[in-house]
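User: I'm preparing a small set of examples for a lab meeting where we compare how different chains pack in three dimensions. I only have the primary sequence for this one, and I'd like the structure in token form so I can line it up with the others. Please keep the answer compact; I'll paste it straight into my notes.
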Amino acid sequence: MRNNRAMPAHRIAVLAVDDVVGLDLGTPAQVFSTARDADDRHYYTVDTCTAGGRAVRSTAGFRVLPDHGLELLDRADTVIVPGVHGEATLRLGVIEPEVIDALRAAYQRGTRIMSICTGAFVLAAAGLLDGRRATTHWAYADRFRRLHPRVDLDPEVLFVADDRLLTSAGVAAGIDLCLHVVRTDHGSAVANRSARRCVMPPWRDGGQAQYIERPVPQAAGTSTAAAREWARQRLHEPVSLRELAEQARMSVRTFTRRFRAETGLSPTQWLLHERTDHARLLLESTDLTVDQIAHRSGFGTTAALRQQLHLRIGVAPSAYRRTFKGRAPC
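Assistant: Understood. Below is the structure token output for the 330-residue chain.
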């Protein structure tokens, strides 16, 4: 994090290995380049490297010719490993020894290490994720567990931050992780501006379960979207399942089934998520007391808000506010 304008930009090294995923490779440069101060100065610099500075194949039908070798990791503040589809890495759990050594050395120096999608296989092969919580693309979860049983894999989330080791789920979740890092480093205002430039929501909570194959509602007229919007306007009030079903003109049983098919959550779970998100927004953007925020977001008591916030992101309301409201964009 850059604390004053005299300090240099945070240096990010993107480490590409053979069969790198094309989208993942470009994500860090795209997202971090949008993080700027009020004078339009960049908070981050992003460069790409490979072992020996050699060209590597991508999954998108082109080769990557980097400007740097692994020595780039020696001066990086953050290292990001994009997804990879190489057989050796995904089926055998093998990567080049020089890549392992470079990643381990970077971590030991205090560098932040991140992966996007199946890039977690690379970090796991280097032994960096042993005994830690991590995630990867849900479609590769079983394979990951077989290859790396010492990692506490959670394929139901968009990203995991375990100290200086951060991993994300598949494809667009890499954008979520990068925005999370901008948010952590420089606060919500900077991250929100970056998100707008990327045409992304500033914060996209929820598990990958909502993206795994499931039946699609047959017609727009059966959607529960209107009921969800009705509930969002009344988060400060008690909202019952029967009231939601009435807004959708469905029986409770039909509404519950269709609601889960569309959102991946039960109505009760969804309401808790919406109320927690609203409370987070109020913690970030207002000076309301935690008790006032608990009531305005529909939790009723500070204890209930504290419990839900801890379940979702592992921190208390006061700690969350200190982290995301007090950041100065400088």
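A couple of notes for your slides: The two ends are 9 Å apart (CA to CA). Residues 1-5, 214-221 have pLDDT under 50 and may be disordered.

User: Perfect, thanks.
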